[in-house]
């Protein structure tokens, strides 16, 4: 049995080559290394999964890289060891994984695993959190900007807040009802927090078979600051939480949209459905 190590060379700000020797020192298993190129990565990872008998896949990158691997796996369930080396590492924060290199390598090569849900959103896989509106606008600007990492992300915040196209009109259908709401952003959350660490869904669990729709009604700096705390109790005037297994969302005009920190093109209609226990990941 081999280990597949998938490295995203551009994620975050870090050089990941020193990882390889650290991992080799900690395991006697043979390691197959794949460096992503940004082109046909899913197909190439899929081939490596088919050609090799794998005990686990280690992923060095951010949420987007974990997603490439999850998509390449289809119905197989090879456990994933997360080496959180993206700019935000939302999934790793949600799983309380350590962010220090030796510590996260130890967890990724360990035995303790957890099965986590994912969400199918317009036939794309969401592992962590997706949204329509303000945060997606921010990610779009960041991806077009020249600065990477958290610094680049922070730099984009101020112009985006001033130029936002919101508020937006959302028609939200869940199993039992249809509601109309106005808001600056609507998140579809499998996790408790955004990649930046903002806790917006404190009672949400990543393995409970449901996801939460989070409707942010207005920009309120006091409430935003509260999200820095793990047990943040947010005001219902700021945030409405709708737990569900399935939903559709219709908007009046095109709204920017992102999944797991990756900008997708603006749209007016989204369908989301929980995929219970979709992935197996190593935890501490
Ligand atoms: N060699 C590469 N060159 C350009 N893009 C790449 C390369 N490898 C992977 N990618 C792209 O990187 C994205 C995934 O990045 P990921 O979310 O893991 O990191 P990140 O945290 O967003 O890091 P950063 O913000 O620095 O990009 C995917 O869109 C993938 O197609």
TrEMBL record:
Pfam family membership, one: DAGK_cat
Keyword match Nucleotidyltransferase: no
Keyword Transferase found: yes
GO terms of molecular function: kinase activity
InterPro entries linked: ATP-NAD_kinase_N, Diacylglycerol_kinase_cat_dom, Lipid_Phosphate_FormReg, NAD/diacylglycerol_kinase_sf, YegS/DAGK_C
Alphabetically ordered keywords of this record: ATP-binding, Kinase, Nucleotide-binding, Transferase
Signal peptide: none
Domain called DAGKc: residue spans: 1-125
PANTHER family xref list: SPHINGOSINE KINASE, SPHINGOSINE KINASE RELATED PROTEIN
Full protein name: Diacylglycerol kinase family protein
Natural source organism: Mesonia ostreae
The organism's taxonomic lineage, starting at the top: Bacteria, Pseudomonadati, Bacteroidota, Flavobacteriia, Flavobacteriales
